[in-house]
């Protein structure tokens, strides 16, 4: 099941920074904006609800990954529309009434932080938002 795979991934990533659950997962208030990986904006799961983030992955992959600075419990990645095809980051989640996948794009959102040698997210010059009036998209 998806939930079983997610729990196995959580255990494998538990020694990495911001691995789920991290120290900020259950905090009612978000951390200081200076700590947000895509400041000045940040998206996080609602604390103290029945919604659980199963994992974070590329849209064209089934495997969950650790994206530096992000955690399924405190910071969720935001796409900016410049990701190459298949490189957008999606968030799998579930609640007592729904299981789904979310793709979030916000025009002009800062690129996700990456190690210098990383190819976790590949960007391109063109944008999903080129020629469109919309400022965000959530699927």
3D architecture notes:
With 139 residues, this protein is mainly β. The chain is built from one helix and four strands, in the order αββββ. It has one helix spanning 2-13, and strands at 52-58, 89-94, 99-106, 136-138. The longest helix is centred in the first third of the chain and has 12 residues, at 2-13. The radius of gyration is 15 Å and the shape is globular.
The low-confidence runs, each spanning 5 or more residues with pLDDT under 50, are none
- Total number of strands: 4
What does the largest sheet look like?
4 strands, antiparallel
Indicate the mean pLDDT.
83
How many DSSP helices?
Answer: 1
Short structural summary:
The chain is mainly beta and 139 residues long.
Features:
mainly beta, 17% strand, 139 residues, 9% helix, 4-stranded antiparallel sheet, globular, single chain
Give the arrangement of secondary structure elements.
Blueprint: H1 2-13, E1 52-58, E2 89-94, E3 99-106, E4 136-138
Antiparallel strand pairs: 1-2, 2-3, 3-4
């Amino acid at each position: 099941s998806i939930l079983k795979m997610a729990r196995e991934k959580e255990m494998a990533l538990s020694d990495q920074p911001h691995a789920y659950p991290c120290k900020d997962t259950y905090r009612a208030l978000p951390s200081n904006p200076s700590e947000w990986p895509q400041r000045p904006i940040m998206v996080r799961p609602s604390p103290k609800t029945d919604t659980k983030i199963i994992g974070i992955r590329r849209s064209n992959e089934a495997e969950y990954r650790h994206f530096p600075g992000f955690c399924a419990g405190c910071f969720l990645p935001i796409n900016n529309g410049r990701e190459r095809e298949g490189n957008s980051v999606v968030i799998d989640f579930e609640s007592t009434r729904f299981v789904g996948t979310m793709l979030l794009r916000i025009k002009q959102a800062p690129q996700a932080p990456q190690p210098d040698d990383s190819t976790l997210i590949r960007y391109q010059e063109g944008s999903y938002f080129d020629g469109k009036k919309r400022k965000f998209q959530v699927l």
